[in-house]
Amino acid sequence: MVDVAKAAGVSLATVSAAVNGSAPVSAALKGRIHKAIRQVGYKTNAIARSLKTGTTSTIGLMVADITNPFFTTTIHAIQELAHRHGYGVMLCCSDEDADKERMHLRLLADRMVDGFIVASAGETPELRALVEGGRTPVVLIDRLVDGLETDAVVIDNVAATRDAVRHLAAAGHRRIGLITGRRTLSTGRERYEGYRQALEEAGIAFEPALVGSARFGADDGYKAAAKLLSLADRPTAIFACNNLSGIGLMRAIHDAGLRCPDDIAVACFDDFDWANVFHPRLTTVAQPTQAIGVQAMLLLLERLKDATARALPPRVVRLKAELRVRDSSVRPAR
Amino acid sequence: MVDVAKAAGVSLATVSAAVNGSAPVSAALKGRIHKAIRQVGYKTNAIARSLKTGTTSTIGLMVADITNPFFTTTIHAIQELAHRHGYGVMLCCSDEDADKERMHLRLLADRMVDGFIVASAGETPELRALVEGGRTPVVLIDRLVDGLETDAVVIDNVAATRDAVRHLAAAGHRRIGLITGRRTLSTGRERYEGYRQALEEAGIAFEPALVGSARFGADDGYKAAAKLLSLADRPTAIFACNNLSGIGLMRAIHDAGLRCPDDIAVACFDDFDWANVFHPRLTTVAQPTQAIGVQAMLLLLERLKDATARALPPRVVRLKAELRVRDSSVRPAR
Known about the structure:
Chain A is built from 13 helices and 12 strands. By secondary structure, chain A is of the alpha/beta class. Chains A, B: Keywords: DNA-binding, Repressor, Transcription, Transcription regulation.
């Protein structure tokens, strides 16, 4: 500030008044001061301000896979709303690795972020300590963590999967395969449960051989799909539990010399920009990715800014996903 | 720290020695202290540390579109390397809006980040002041900004586009359309230049009517493509200057009742996971997105950590892109 005052040829008090609006300053003087600020590069010192308020106006955002379009839309929504409320977003990516997540959580805590939004790669002592410590609000997104009592925004995975598998059964399929996601995650478990419910509802016996285990990745989705497709009595339809395993599934169908939907019907979790451009246009479960981000940030803002909200018990918001039926699940008329 | 010492039943000096490794502490004592730390929630106070060192160990990362897969891989690489070196990443997204970028740059500067990596949405006084101020290192990625002398990592856009259009010409196409990107950006201008060079090289006269103006988005790409496809003498091949306009192009071809590659050959910038899964498998210019992120962070780290590097003149690193020829640009034999 001293440099600014010198450059503008005014007193320190005048600079302070102009910057903080603490006293009236003429437009001409303001102009000179702002020009000087640009020259000198003076900024309100965020560090000093943090020390005074004990807050950093920063939130930590931990996602499992930043290259997955599901997360990017959510990140974007969080970032938009955070900035509108004066919060910076410190981004960390665990790559679905619980150890990496622990490391990042420690770093974010060390940086004293004011709040956390976390799509957890799995329960860890750090995450539990953070939530149970109760000093810094934590909002989980996408995945719940068993026994962790905190705000969360997730979708109704059971219903969404049930709807999609019900759609395959309604098209006449009786041998419906599943490519699971990570069963250690709530999303993986709930989608599996939705599959079981749809089968039961349709009077189709559950066959363990038709369930391929994958971990929400394209390569493991490919492997699980290839195994299902090589069965003597292979499924006539397959549901994949996320977009990446859906991609793996499509690759496996191609490599096995099969055609979709003629030989095998496909539906999968997570819509994306490209799903309706190429052939076959993919039938997907579209999650409200933008709404997840907005809702998570709203819950966090309430905890950060409102003493009444801060006292509320943990809130779990469930949003609905939407089945988008396209070509890949519908056998052409013969 | 006082609370930790009390909870662990040891002296403050012992806690300090255990945390900072400044003196040997027995494993048993360390165990007790770490347990106490978990209970009390003690963290090295980043704010106090920042005040002491004048640095925040944070870099500001400004991208133009976080939902574009091109950027997500780059962001991921930057984030990985930054964390490995103890830097947090504050993420901002301009949505290709120069005003939003200005606002974010001010916020990041106010937070006193130690360095910037910026894919700029366009030249602004804030960006210029930041670079010319010379206090905080700035690395541009993806796009150069005219007259802004600072480190940058970009690809050789002219050569990459020339290669792709040359490939279309070599397949016998003489009427090759272009869907441009934003010509206010270096990427848009350079790719346009590569198109012109390839035509000239192939002895094809340049026709302004075959150039559709778009702004790197799917919707404007669609509109520009629809216009080209409605020409009485429409192009037999089209090159799109990024992945989103390529998607718009594919939609327009579909909606016009045309087939790719039978009626119209297609190639576009930016490879992505899905490009080789569906039909037609897309011919793309694959940018080294991961390498761009790593290289940008390396340049920034050098400026941040090495006084010798800090004194170097601006370095512009050009990386090569790779043409991946698939079905969309190759007419099937008849």
